[in-house]
Write a structure and sequence with these properties.
Layout (H helix, E strand, L loop, with lengths): L1 H7 L14 E7 L2 E6 L15 H15 L7 E5 L5 H12 L4 E5 L8 H8 L5 E6 L11 H9 L9 E7 L7 H10 L3 H13 L3 E5 L4 H14 L6 H15 L4 H14 L5
Parallel strand pairs: 1-4, 3-6, 3-7, 4-5, 5-6
Antiparallel strand pairs: 1-2
Length: about 270
């Protein structure tokens, strides 16, 4: 029986080549987890991101300290959807990968494996960012407790070569009604609420992202056109871009990139 069970498990995966793999994902199957190298990491650069200069400056400074072996903070990026939170983390990786920075993406469902992941990374010469994208928790989910342990350490101190960068649309990572419910139904409301909001407090650096204005939206598109050598007259760009965002019912960096992708495709320009 044991022989048949072992045969059903995925084969042991060799450790990644840390010299060539700058981005990895944590994969799980049948109770076994491993690091899988990302073949084609996103090539976005810091120069591609506009109108978030303050956020760029602060996260770059924090990451530079981390790569240099100096004290640095875990980072929580919160705000409106499509505002550049995830893109900024990817751009930071590309900026510092040549100096030993590596990124490991972990899905929310796999946060329970964080202690095992940290054990794999401890003692290595590289510097690692554990990246949790679009992070939020609903009622009944307890995976956030594993994340709290890694952020502040449990009995063992957190390794100095690992930080957590997380993005979320929620500042406290929990829905407001979940927090309000604790206030109304718990025996000790203040303690119950404290348990829920203390997770975000464990991130030393908070970066807020806000809705962009129409001028910012158009400036993003102009920046993409300049970066990729696409020429278009201003009246045409303005009319098309505004119509594009009106049909989407939203205005953000993501919508700006989607319009530019369509424009580049129509002009026959490869990105």
């Amino acid at each position: 029986v044991l022989g048949r069970f072992e045969a059903s498990l995925p084969p042991l995966v060799p450790p990644p080549d840390w010299m060539t793999a700058i981005a990895l994902r944590w994969r799980t199957r049948n109770g076994r987890g491993w690091l899988q190298a990302v073949r084609h990491p996103h090539p976005i650069r810091l120069a591609d991101l506009t109108n978030i200069d303050d956020q760029k400056t602060r996260i770059v400074a924090n990451t530079r300290q981390f790569v240099a072996g100096q004290p640095a903070n875990n980072v929580l990026l919160t705000g409106t959807r499509g505002s550049g939170k995830s893109s900024l983390v990817k751009a930071v990786l590309n900026e510092f990968s040549g100096k030993g920075l590596r990124l490991i993406e972990v899905d929310k469902d796999d946060l329970i494996d964080l202690p095992d992941i940290v054990d794999l990374l401890e003692g290595r010469p590289e510097r690692f960012i554990i990246f949790c994208d679009d992070l939020s928790f609903e009622a009944g989910e307890t995976a956030y407790k594993a994340l709290k342990s890694v952020l502040d350490g449990s009995v063992a101190a957190p390794p100095d070569n690992v930080l957590v960068y997380a993005t979320s649309n929620r500042r406290h990572l929990m829905p407001r009604d979940m927090i309000e419910n604790e206030r109304s139904s718990a025996i000790n409301p203040s303690e119950a609420v404290e348990e829920k909001v203390s997770l975000s407090d464990r991130f030393g650096l908070w970066l807020g992202f806000h809705p962009c204005s129409q001028d910012d939206y158009l400036e993003m598109i102009r920046g993409y056109c300049t970066s990729h050598g696409l020429e278009i007259d201003e009246p045409t760009l303005r009319a098309e871009a505004i119509e594009w965002q009106a049909t989407r019912g939203a205005r953000s960096g993501r919508v700006a990139w989607q319009y530019f992708t369509d424009l580049a495709g129509r002009r026959g320009i490869r990105l």
